[in-house]
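Postdoc handover notes: sequence design on the structure in folder B. Input C-alpha cells:
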C-alpha cells in the first residue's frame, strides 16, 4: 500500500507578503490557500485582494 504524502504537513502555507498591516503597521503574511493575509502583530485577517488594491492605489 502506497504511503499517502501530505504536502501541507511539510510546507509552510504562510508566505511573507510585502505589505504592512493597515491597522498597526506590522508585517502581513499571506495565507496562500485561503487568499487571505494575517498580521503577525495584531493577528487581524484581511482578504489579499483588499490589501493589494489599497497598496496599489496609494
Ligand atoms: Zn496588525
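Designed sequence:
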Amino acid at each position: 500500500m502506497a504511503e499517502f504524502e501530505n504536502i501541507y504537513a511539510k510546507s509552510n502555507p504562510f508566505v511573507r507578503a510585502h505589505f504592512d498591516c493597515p491597522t498597526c503597521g506590522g508585517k502581513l503574511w499571506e495565507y496562500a490557500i485561503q487568499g487571505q493575509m494575517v498580521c503577525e502583530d495584531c493577528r487581524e485577517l484581511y482578504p489579499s485582494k483588499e490589501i493589494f488594491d489599497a497598496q496599489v492605489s496609494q
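Context for whoever picks this up: Residues 11-56 form one domain. Don't rerun without checking with the PI first.
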